[in-house]
Amino acid sequence: MSTLYALSDIHLSYAPNRAAWTLLRPHPNDGLILAGDMGETISHMRLAFEAATSSFARVWWVPGNHELYSMPPSSTTEPADALRGEAKYDACVDIAREYGVLTPEDDFVVWQGDDGKETLVCPIFTLYDYSFRPTHVTRDGALAWAMEEGIEATDEHLLHPDPYATRDEWCQALCLRFEAKLTAARQAHPQIPFVIVNHWPLKEALVHLMMVPRFRIWCGTKLTEDWPQRFGASVVVTGHLHVRRTDWIDGVRYEEVSLGYPRQWKDCRESGKDVNDMMREILPGPQKPESGNAATMWRRYG
After folding, report:
1. Strand ranges inside 25-117, DSSP E
2. Domains, the chain, ranges and CATH?
3. CA 113 to CA 252: how far, in whole Å?
4. DSSP 8-class letter at 193
5. Burial of 224 (0-12, 13-18, 19+ CB in 10 A)
6. Beta bridge partners of residue 294, listed in sequence order
7. In angstroms, rounded to a whole number, what is the distance separating the alpha carbons of residues 57 and 207?
8. How would you classify residue 170: left for phi > 0, otherwise alpha for psi between -120 and 50, otherwise beta?
9. Could you tell me the CA-to-CA distances from 198 to 79, 80, 122, 162 in Å, in that order?
């Protein structure tokens, strides 16, 4: 393998993004991480995986909130699109496996670069539990706090937690499961650095939403705060925020790799960039700063 790339939030329900996705160039020796939000339907998943697996030697996918939406019946949906909660996630995993795409339900795989260095690629799924909120805001008051500024995620209407009673409970169950999986992987591979892949940020400090700051309650869970350090991650790859950035914190590189809605990368298209320019190189990636920390790099592309 040569280079490992990542991209998230492709949102193939939008025609400009679907057209852009057809322009993927061949990468016969490279890998691609798809960090969630391919779209809302099974057909979006197929579009994403067909192009990705035709272009890349190995593909990983983790779910975002949009893949988990339960969509009302229409001429463009399939019966599986209306499934709720875990059942919708399981249907997405089944589609991924049809294309040979690795998911959080598969074994973690060692990536070996041209330099011979090994890294364990660890796709996980954690959801969120509304804990990314100020200390004075209670869990019961979190939604009202967001609504004070007119903010409400579509998840509240389309992302169901079945068979769990709440999204919080589903999140907690997922965190327990993937904490155990990461622990076992660290024991099995004590010397290999991890690339942890999740749709939602693992650290609250990385949630920077200048226009909609109170949307943060749908952006992760404090349960994962110490995971990058505890499990020896060299890189953490996430999406969801539609704010492309690179951060170095205590020697760990954090990459937000969203493409975003068409309007959010319109300037890149108009400057002659396409979806290939929007992919982020994860491995080998940039050199680590000597101190292990660096100022945030805000990225328009690449």
Report:
1. 27-34, 56-61, 109-112
2. 4-298 (3.60.21.10)
3. 19
4. -
5. buried
6. 248
7. 32
8. alpha
9. 27, 23, 9, 21
Task: Please state the φ and ψ torsions of residue 82, each to the nearest 5 degrees.
Answer: -90, -5
- Model confidence pTM above 0.85: yes
Q: Cα(42)–Cα(262) distance, rounded to whole angstroms?
A: 21
| Averaged pLDDT in 10-residue chunks for the chain of 302 residues | 93 98 97 98 98 98 98 91 98 98 98 92 98 98 98 98 98 98 98 98 97 98 98 98 98 98 97 97 96 96 93
pLDDT score for 114: 85
**Does residue 89 contact residue 170 with C-beta atoms inside 8 Å?**
no
CA distance 35 to 247: 17
Cβ-proximal residues to 260 (8 Å cutoff; 6+ apart), any chain: 9, 11, 242
d(CA 194, CA 233): 4
The amino acid present at 43, given as its one-letter code, is S
Q: How far apart are CA 66 and CA 264, in angstroms?
A: 17
- CA–CA dist 192, 109 (Å, integer): 11
**Total length of the chain:** 302
* Dihedral-angle region of residue 123 (phi above 0 means left; psi in -120 to 50 means alpha; beta otherwise): beta
CA distance 108 to 184: 11
Whether the Cβ atoms of residue 103 and residue 187 lie closer than 8 Å to each other: no
First to last CA, the chain: 20
Percentages helix, strand, coil for the chain (3-state, rounded to 5) are 35, 20, 45
**CA-closest candidate to residue 198, choices 177, 215, 184:** 177
Residues paired with residue 254 on neighbouring β-strands, in sequence order? 236, 247
Q: How far from 7 is each of 98, 105, 153, 288, CA to CA, in Å? A: 21, 20, 22, 21
